[in-house]
Design goal:
alpha/beta; Leucine Aminopeptidase, subunit E, domain 1; Aminopeptidase; nine-stranded mixed β-sheet; six-stranded mixed β-sheet; 15 helices; binds ligand BES; binds manganese (II) ion; binds zinc ion
Length: about 500
């Protein structure tokens, strides 16, 4: 979809479709009011029949409204709450997007960004709407022999918006587009099956990204990883025939002296559990265990597209977690890059084993902050469901920044405590640290494990086991938390 800005009056526009909002109690938005007036009350009288549900995102398509040059008017409900929320706005945009995608209208004029929201300006409303509209057009049919060839859906969309600084509106649209593009990359990598999206495939994808943008990439091979001494990461890779890779990305948009933000993404391209093997049901979904890595790549794409003035390093340890003749066994003890020894009590707690070595590697960049992103624990889905990522951090200011970015983008996170009480749940009789905690608080003990490797810098951990993926009829990757991370870096870059 192509996005532009238009200033004008909706009741005078010749368009395939004008999209306008209806507020609580059937109150018309300013554009809807203008259309109603021009149609001599036709709009209000149709609305009075009650066919537009008052749930935010509900829609009603009207054709050939008298006195209106536009061929269609799409009414979109913003919900029946007096106080509009970010969510009702997002739901309304998503509802409109669904209708526009299945309409034969080729272009549309979009008048929802005029809706007043508490604390959200025109810039925010445009950026959000662009991101949602563009993201809703995402399709994954690469691996179907018969593609959906229907050319339905709006191709060009003009935002009805006015502002004293028009270039700011353009910037908002470009930001929304960049983030949706980053999400699309993350989704595709997450949706690709384990036999296609291998560690080697992720390395190739990173190289392609670097070729197309101002990004540098290094791929460390098994021998390099051995030389470095990443004994914990390599332990996970032992069970697989696919060679592991350690991907290092550099985006240098800032000044040479600016300390980088380091993003670390878990890249398990398939998690069988290893010798502590998982049950068969739903195991196919463990192809998404590389969504942390995918979101780091997606975020790099977004920030490069926005040309953010900031330095960012991306670290992606990637391997399969397989049972095999040389796979690690419960009870095995390995030495991490940090020198700490780890007793592997459960081979299915492999994410932390690959992340800990990447987190130690991060020290060499003297980072301003390190954020790791991982589909780390099933316990996080139990605690927070699929709406909210788990956030744990050793620095409350960093945590607050990430929480705020979650709120601003709707890609929300919630902080869990990383108190010392929980550190006591990690004790090994035979090594420095076990890779699992005693029963309970699984998301927290996983983060406690990681915290043993992040003492020298400000660090936050996002557990995206619940948010990176949707199960059920709409099974697939969500592209989260690219919006949260991109917004966090936008803020850090002072944009
Ligand atoms: N990749 C899984 C976590 C996961 C589970 C992500 C379900 C998405 C959906 C991770 O490697 C894992 O297996 N974690 C174990 C940890 C346990 C052995 C301490 C878990 O959550 O069961
Ligand atoms: Mn696992
Ligand atoms: Zn895993």
């Amino acid at each position: 979809m192509e996005f532009t800005i238009k200033a004008g009056s909706p009741e005078k526009l010749k368009s395939d479709c004008v999209v306008v909002g209806v507020l609580a109690g059937g109150e018309l938005s300013p554009s809807a009011k203008a259309l109603d007036k021009a149609s001599e009350g036709a709009l209000a009288s149709i609305l009075a029949r009650g066919d537009l549900d008052d749930k935010a995102g509900a829609t009603l398509m009207l054709h050939a409204l008298p006195g209106i040059p536009a061929a269609r008017v799409l009414l979109v409900s913003l919900g029946n709450d007096e106080a509009l929320t970010d969510k009702s706005y997002r739901d309304a945009v998503a509802g409109a997007a669904r209708q526009l995608a299945s309409s034969t209208a080729e272009e549309a004029v979009f008048c929802l960004a005029e809706i007043d929201l508490p604390k959200r300006d025109m810039f925010w409303r445009l950026a959000q709407a662009t991101q949602i509209l563009k993201d809703s057009g995402y399709r994954f049919d690469e691996l179907k022999s018969r593609k959906d060839e229907s050319r339905k859906g709006v191709k060009k969309l003009a935002f009805m918006a006015r502002h004293k600084d028009e270039s700011a509106l353009e910037t908002a649209i470009r930001q929304g587009e960049a983030i949706a593009e980053g999400m699309a990359l993350a989704k595709t990598l997450g949706n690709l099956p384990g036999n296609v999206c291998t560690p080697g495939y992720l390395a190739t994808a990173a190289k392609k990204l670097a070729r197309e943008h101002k990004i540098k990439v290094e791929v460390l091979e098994r021998t390099d990883i051995e030389k470095l001494g990443m004994g914990s990461f390599l332990a996970v890779a032992r069970g697989s025939h696919e060679p592991p890779k350690f991907i290092v990305l550099h985006y240098k948009g800032g000044k040479a002296k600016d300390k980088p933000v380091v993003l670390v993404g878990k890249g398990i391209t398939f998690d069988t559990g290893g010798i502590s093997i998982k049950p068969a049901e739903g195991m196919d979904e463990m192809k998404y265990d590389m969504c942390g890595a995918a979101s780091v790549l997606g975020t790099f794409k977004a920030i490069a597209r926005m040309a953010l003035p900031i330095n960012v390093v991306g670290l992606i340890p990637t391997t399969e977690n397989m049972p095999g003749g040389s796979a690690i066994k419960p009870g095995d003890i390995v030495t991490s890059l940090s020198g700490q020894t780890i007793e592997i009590l459960n081979t299915d707690a492999e994410g932390r084993l690959i992340l800990c070595d990447a987190l130690t590697y991060a020290e060499r960049f003297d980072p301003a902050a390190v954020v790791d992103v991982a589909t780390l624990t099933g316990a996080c889905i139990i605690a927070l469901g699929n709406a909210t990522s788990g956030l744990l951090a050793n620095d409350d200011e960093l945590a607050a920044e990430l929480l705020a970015s979650g709120q601003a983008t709707g890609d929300k996170a919630w902080q869990l405590p990383l108190w010392d009480e929980y550190q006591d749940m990690l004790k090994s009789n035979f090594a420095d640290i076990p890779n699992i905690g005693t029963k309970g608080a699984g998301t927290i003990t996983a983060a406690c494990f990681l915290s043993r490797f992040t003492k020298s810098y400000k660090w936050a951990h996002l557990d995206i086991a619940g948010t990176a993926w949707k199960s059920g009829a709409e099974k697939g990757a969500t592209g989260r938390p690219v919006p949260l991370l991109a917004h966090f870096l936008l803020q850090r870059a002072g944009r």
